[in-house]
Amino acid sequence: MTYQGKEESLIELFDDMLKSNMSNYYMTFHPKAAERFGGKYGIRPLFTNEPKPLALPYMWKYREAKSKLYQLSELISAEESERRTVIFVNPGLKNINFFGLSSIAPTLYGGLQLIKAGERAPAHRHTPVNVRFVLEAPEKGAYIIYDGFKVDIGPGDVLVQSNWMLHDHHNNGDTDLIWLAGLDSPFVSYLSAMFYEGFVTGGVDEEQPIKSAGDVLTETYGSSLRPSRPLVSHDPWYNPVIKYPWRNILRTLTHLHSMGNLDQHEGVSVELTNPLSGGPALPTIRITTTLIPPKTDLYPLRRTENMVLVNFDGEIVVEVMESIDGKKTFHLADHDVVVLPTWTKYRLSNRDDRPAILFTYSDAPIYKSFGLYREIKFEGTR
Question: Which of 54, 214, 243, 249 is 20 to 30 A from 19 in CA distance terms?
Answer without folding.
Answer: 54
